[in-house]
Automatic annotation (TrEMBL), chains A, D:
Presence of the UniProt keyword Lyase in the record: yes
The keyword Ribosomal protein appears for this protein: no
EC number(s) per entry: 4.2.1.20
Location of the active site: 32, 43
Ranges of biased composition (kind: Low complexity): 96-105
Protein name as it appears in the record: Tryptophan synthase alpha chain
Reactions it catalyzes: (1S,2R)-1-C-(indol-3-yl)glycerol 3-phosphate + L-serine = D-glyceraldehyde 3-phosphate + L-tryptophan + H2O
Positions of region (Disordered): 96-121
Organism: Actinoplanes ianthinogenes
Highest classification ranks of the organism: Bacteria, Bacillati, Actinomycetota, Actinomycetes, Micromonosporales
Length: 296, 374, 374, 296
């Protein structure tokens, strides 16, 4: 079955959990929750704007996880966090040099003593980060600016916390590296279908299908295509090349424009229908078995 | 690319091969005599190197120290930035690239990039924060006259931080034909190393020009490229190395470990891990990060970092102008301001010999200064 | 002081002793090894000399000539004017003067004078036409930052001509303590000779830097100091010497013999003998006279003079910027404009080697250019 | 008798001859006629303004000499021209180099052929200039930017035309030079009483009397003091040191301000009275005999 992973910026509106529930109701296989960061290097204008709006509304990793924990009983699909390295490694212990305070602001995430700035101690670093994700019911993690070369410690931390660290592959990724990504990724592989940032496009990039094919050749993990998949028709095309799609900017633009959770449910349902249509084209033998832990 | 626990290559997979190719190309070029000779030739016949070393005699007498100025303000385009871009443009040409993408704060790196692009017949696209565009109009016009496209960045703080994000995003979309001509010693590996190597000409020239090893070597630090280049010439000597930051943009002094723009270093960020906007009168220092080598030099104690305020900087510009006839950039004036404050104190005892890198000239800052100084 | 039938010392009796004393002091200093060494030291360690000689490779290929640029734009303060003022300020100090008085057009000489005054701890008063102040605000602010007093001149054409009158008047009233730091090769004897001698470093360096004697040596001419200094290095060679004037300020081309500002030369004047106002986009060339040595070189045929229009000049600025990454001053662009027009014609045949003095950088002209180029 | 030489910018108003007649009526011993020049190096703001106004009204050497010739029968005191070198040497033959035209404007002073620009031929140069002055009834000439070193040819031309070339001496002029000026000046010596341009001053410069005394010691010519003599009282003080005064800016300022010839007659008369007062202080034995040719 072709997978549909819609993306939702955590905290984009005060009632953002309603969008999450709408995505679920519309048939999402999993939802990617964006933990907003001030400097989202790989995001285009729409997701940047969504992140900025969430941050302005006071969203933080802590607040988003709290919201998710509160909604836990109503969520029955896997949740995957997507964020940037700085939030993942935040408070990573720092062993040498002068101590500096970041200021006395009382923030639930920071220690409050004078030593809080340079080292947040046991409650910080990728280990604590992954643990906190797991505690909030999240089962996967995508960090686009942590390539496989920089992933060792995060990989270990994720494994220890029972989180799937999903790695990304790009059209320019060379074969040996693609193989390593295939080997080390968990849950699925995120195929960055275009050499560009996130954002809507007029057509699916020509690089999407070849990348998916190359990935399928080196791994048995599901290959989900993301970046620039803007319409159900594009999603269907992408899904034919891989095992599913991530839809981000096309949905977030509508939320930013004021669409309601109901509106978004219809939107996601249209993508679901398109993918289901593709499923019917595909002989059952080539469909992958569901990966344990990704639908519960 | 790694300096102790700092540095690294925290970039999207889309950029990893380009970073790797750049690293390989630079390793190859840097050990190629012909490449180094071509660069040396350009530095001499085009960029005006070696730059002078000027004894600031009147100021020295007033302060009770011997102050020597390494005059990067005399380099072509008006700052040390040309050292870096000439090397990167040569490298880009060697790699078959036809286009340079750059970020810029004060505009000096943008002008240098536009200059190198014109010289090599390449296309240049420069990302610059809207706020910086407003305060550095002269440099915007220079870039355009040189044929570069200047793209205003309206996101975030609308300064160097967001211009850097946009430049990296643009690179993702043009990685085949474009070289990302990064302006400072930040960014993913190999940039902090590559830029330091291209800027070490400052320190090496200065060391050859100074009769004795100075007691103190001082330079301003935003991202930190002029300081890194200067320090490179003296890191193996007993000279104290001092980097001077803007009080409103002091990642070394007030930052915590973090990852931005592809590298791990000290970063100005709030308790939730969101990167803060820097705030300095010098557009070139309005940057919340700092090169990873500085983080390493600072945490290991080999270099020390100080901060000065905007008011001290304005005073330093004026005092250097009136004492020595040199109008330096607001960025460079940070180093001068520290010398003015520290001379005669235990931090810079009377009788010390100080080598100070004057990273650039102040023409670009006249509009800002006209509003602030008098 | 006399160049054939040109030159002389047409000044009020009040100034004769000062001119005579200056002549004696310069003769004495110029034959004093210690003075010349001190000047050479300042040139090297302060002003950034020798300036580079840059082969303009892309433009050469396009034009079919070998174009070599003598880079006075890289000198401290951004033009060749610093060569002259450092020498005059040293001389003034040697004569016990405590103050410099100067005239300025584009402001480059004013900035250079203010710079030398700051360096030597002297007072500087710079006369500048109101009209030039309006179009060269950057330089006005630079002078003020350097501690100079800039006095707006509201008489006559409100440009360099009247600023020169005012400076000479001011000198009459302050001749004991003040040196008149004249910026070009005009004025009463000894100035045309003194300034040429101080600027000959351009030509001498260029001659040492060029592998062969160029076929043509070209420089812009307003008063004519950068051209005089350049020509001095090649006058004894077979090189053709070409001075390029602004079409609207071409004393060599359209002037008649006359006496202004203390010297006899060719002067733009009407039939009744009233001096005309020059009209050029380049403030530094808005001058109705020309140094007497040029009048002599021109009338004897040793040098040739050409004119270019403002439009050609604007095009030259842009073309040099886009081909070579060098933004030159509007003044300097006159020489470039002539090369662009003449290359491939009998006036500058294909295959010629051309040495062109780029007298200054264009930062000061960005406001003017922003309104004119795009 | 102490001499009073008021200065008048030729052509300063259309009826400028009336001011000249008023000066004469008020007891001027001679009048200096300024031939306006665009770049009057030694003049302060007032005389510059007077020159500019005259030039704007169309004054030229030719028009001024024409006006004087027309008024000749009414003028019975000596007239002395004061102007700058460029007007004196104008059209001085120029022997080498390319010919250039100054344009085809029909001006009575310029030849009108294509060769007119570089050389005005027999009608040009200092010889012709002096001849034309003499023809208009002028007997003296002052050219402040032709110092004695540059004066040879002009001196010969003036002598040939019967014009007294009046030389100037300044407070800084050294003794040997002062002696030469004393020897070569004709008519009188113009003592520049202050190291400054022309223009009104609050008090007579302290340099005035010493310069006059030094000049009196080296020459028997009358010594007239000028520059900055602004009031009858200052004129009296100056006259005690020398043989008379030149009054310029103080008068031209009043003309520029709109004063009538009658107003100026009163003004000059006040200076005359002050000088006559000084004459009465002086024992007859020390007064110089009148110089022939200067009052007719």
């Amino acid at each position: 079955m072709k997978r549909l992973n819609p993306y939702l910026t955590g905290g984009i509106t005060p009632d953002w959990i309603d969008y999450l529930l709408a995505f679920q109701a519309a048939g999402a296989d999993a939802v990617e929750i964006g933990l907003p960061f001030s400097d989202p290097m790989l995001d285009g204008a729409t997701i940047q704007q969504a992140s900025d709006q969430a941050l302005r509304l006071g969203a933080s990793v802590a607040s988003i996880l709290t919201d998710l924990a509160a909604a836990r009983s109503r969520i029955c699909i896997p949740l995957i966090a997507m964020t940037y390295a700085n939030l993942v490694f935040r408070g990573d212990p720092f062993t040498t040099g002068p101590a500096t305070a970041t200021g006395p602001e009382a923030d639930p995430e920071a220690g409050s003593g004078p030593e809080a700035g340079r080292s947040l101690g046991a409650g910080s670093g990728p280990e604590a980060f992954c643990r906190r994700l797991a505690e909030a019911g999240i089962t996967g993690l995508i960090v686009p600016d942590v390539p496989v070369d920089e992933a060792d410690r995060l990989e270990a931390a994720a494994t220890a916390a029972g989180i799937d660290l999903v790695l990304l592959a790009a059209p320019v990724t060379p074969p040996d590296r693609l193989a390593e990504i295939g080997r080390r990724s968990r849950g699925f592989i995120y195929a960055v279908s275009v050499m560009d940032t996130t954002g809507e496009r007029d057509a699916l990039a020509t690089t999407a299908a070849p990348l998916a094919a190359r990935l399928k050749a080196v791994t048995d993990l599901p290959v989900l295509l993301g970046f620039g998949i803007s319409t159900p028709a594009q999603a269907a095309t992408a899904a034919r090349a891989g095992d599913g799609v991530v839809i981000g900017a096309a949905l977030m633009r509508r939320v930013l424009d004021g669409a309601t959770p109901d509106d978004l449910r219809a939107e996601v349902a249209a993508f679901r229908a398109a993918l289901d249509q593709v499923d019917q084209e595909v002989p059952a033998a080539t469909a992958h078995a569901e990966i344990s832990g990704h639908r519960r | 690319g790694r300096f102790g626990e700092f540095g690294g290559r925290y970039v999207p997979e889309s950029l990893v091969p380009a970073c790797a190719a750049l690293e390989a190309a630079f390793r190859d070029a840097w050990s190629d005599t012909a490449f180094r000779e071509r660069l040396a030739h350009l530095r001499t016949t085009y960029a005006g190197r070696p730059t002078a070393l000027t004894a600031a005699e009147r100021l020295s007498a007033e302060l009770g120290v011997t102050l020597l100025l390494k005059r990067e303000d005399l380099a072509h385009t008006g700052s040390h930035k040309i050292n870096n871009v000439l090397g990167q443009a040569l490298l880009a040409q060697r790699m078959g690239k036809t286009r340079l993408i750059a970020e810029t704060g004060a505009g000096q790196h943008g002008v240098a990039t536009a200059t190198a692009a014109a010289l090599f017949g390449m296309r240049a696209t420069v990302y610059m924060g809207e706020r910086d565009i407003a305060r550095q109009r002269l440099n915007v016009f220079r870039m355009e006259l040189l044929g570069a496209e200047v793209i205003p960045v309206t996101s975030g703080s609308r300064t160097l931080k967001d211009a850097t994000n946009e430049a990296m995003r643009a690179w993702v979309a043009a990685v085949d034909e474009a070289h990302f001509c990064l302006g400072s010693v930040g960014g993913p590996h190999p940039y902090p190393w590559l830029v330091r190597e291209l800027q070490r000409v400052i320190g090496e020239e200065a060391r050859a020009q100074t009769p004795v090893i100075p007691d103190v070597v001082v330079a301003c630090v935003g991202g930190g490229s002029n300081a890194a280049g200067t320090f490179a010439g003296f890191v193996d000597t007993p000279a104290r190395l001092i980097g001077v930051e803007a009080a409103g943009g002091a990642a070394m002094t007030n930052g915590t470990p973090g990852v931005v723009h592809g590298y791990r270093s000290l970063v100005l960020q709030d308790a939730a891990g969101q990167v803060l906007e820097a705030e300095s009168i010098a557009a070139g220092l309005d940057y919340p990060g700092v090169g990873p080598e500085h983080a390493h030099l600072g945490t290991t104690g080999r270099a020390e970092y100080r901060t000065v305020t905007d008011d001290e900087v304005l005073d330093a510009v004026r005092r250097l102008a009136r004492s020595e006839g040199i109008i330096c950039a607001l960025e460079s004036a940070h180093a001068v301001a520290w010398v003015l404050r520290a001379a005669g104190t235990p931090d810079l005892p009377t009788g010390s010999t100080v080598l100070l890198t004057l990273s650039g000239r102040g023409d670009k800052d006249m509009a800002t200064l006209a509003g602030e100084v008098r």
